[in-house]
Amino acid sequence: MQTGTDLYSLDLSAADFVQACGGPCTEGCVVLARIGEDAWALGDSKRPDMEPLRFTSAELAAAGIDPSSFGLSA
């Protein structure tokens, strides 16, 4: 299992971020990408210059974020 520190050493250059919205995506949305076997990056499409936060699968679940809401498998 990776630690929070390890997650920030993962390269995001090839990450494929997917948006999920509760309504029209005209003002921006949360974006999520799998960046490793047990690693996820969570960003904000309104602020693409900000570094995405990174989570393990367990941390993502504890935060109530389901990758299937983004069309991603956990």
Protein described:
With 74 residues, the protein is α+β, with helices and mostly antiparallel strands. Helices cover 14% and strands 26% of the residues. It has 2 helices and 4 strands; from the N terminus they run H-E-E-E-E-H. A 4-stranded antiparallel β-sheet has the order 1-2-3-4. It is globular and about 35 Å long. It starts with a helix and ends in a 12-residue tail after the last helix. The model has no long low-confidence stretch (mean pLDDT 86).
What are the defining features of this structure?
four-stranded antiparallel sheet, 4 strands, alpha+beta, 2 helices, globular, 74 residues, 26% strand
Percentage beta strand: 25-35%
SS content category: alpha+beta
The total of helices stands at 2
* Strand order in space, largest sheet: 1-2-3-4
What do the pLDDT scores average to? 86
Q: How is the main sheet built?
A: 4 strands, antiparallel
General shape: globular
- Rg, please? 12 Å
The poorly predicted ranges are: none
Number of strands: 4
Terminal CA distance reads 15 Å
Helix content: 10-25%
Secondary-structure element series? HEEEEH
Quick description:
This protein is α+β, with helices and mostly antiparallel strands and 74 residues long. The protein is built from two helices and four strands.
Strand-helix topology:
Layout: H1 4-7, E1 18-20, E2 30-36, E3 39-44, E4 53-55, H2 57-62
Antiparallel strand pairs: 1-2, 2-3, 3-4
